[in-house]
Specification:
The protein is mainly alpha-helical. Helix content is about 60%, strand content about 0%. The longest helix has 16 residues, at about 140-155. The radius of gyration is 20 Å and the shape is elongated. Helix 8 runs antiparallel to helix 9. InterPro entries: TPR-like_helical_dom_sf.
Length: about 180
């Protein structure tokens, strides 16, 4: 007879354990990658993201983010995919999550949040996000973001898409946003 050993249950599976459901194993004993598979759990999302296949990248990143909730790079790319697909509320959640993970220091997430809030018509919050944007490697982009934030105070809602497009194009030209996109 074997002695009962306590089983460590990850926090995300605790609810399943309480309901008496099967708990997935974290690492199966034969979890070696096959010859054609990449070792990274984010490889499928990375490949689709690089090819600008945002729906496929979004699905792959959502799946891989479930296992790695605190990966800012994956969350940034997921937020960008959602932004490109016009799912601005979900993109906002992802960018805010990255900013919480990085104590507000991630410039990609800060710009993504500003653009997303601008797309949602949240003027005050977009102004605050763009004013807080600071990229020491791209001083011109930082200055542009702040000028656009200042213009938001007096601009009418009809000019928001043009301001957002200007900021997007500049961020793409300066290499902060990927060069492939719908805008």
């Amino acid at each position: 007879m074997t002695a009962d050993t306590p089983r460590n249950i990850p926090r995300r599976h605790l609810f399943r354990a309480l309901l008496g459901r099967e708990i997935p194993t974290e690492s199966p004993p034969d979890a070696t990658p096959a010859a054609g598979q990449a070792a990274s759990p984010h490889a499928a999302g990375d490949a689709a993201y690089a090819a600008a296949d945002y729906p496929a990248a979004m699905a792959a990143y959502r799946e891989s983010a479930r296992g790695d909730l605190s990966n800012p790079a994956v969350r940034n790319r997921l937020g960008h995919c959602l932004y490109e697909l016009g799912q601005f509320i979900q993109a906002r959640v992802e960018f805010e999550h990255v900013l919480r993970l990085t104590d507000g220091k991630d410039v990609f997430a800060r710009l993504g949040l500003g653009l997303t809030l601008l797309a949602l018509g949240k003027t005050e919050k977009a102004m605050a996000a763009l004013q807080a944007f600071d990229d020491p490697e791209r001083a011109d982009l930082t200055a542009l973001a702040r000028r656009i934030a200042d213009k938001l105070e007096t601009a009418d809602v009809a000019s928001y898409p043009g301001l957002r497009l200007t900021l997007e194009r500049s961020a793409r030209a300066m290499g902060l946003l990927p060069d492939h996109g719908t805008a």
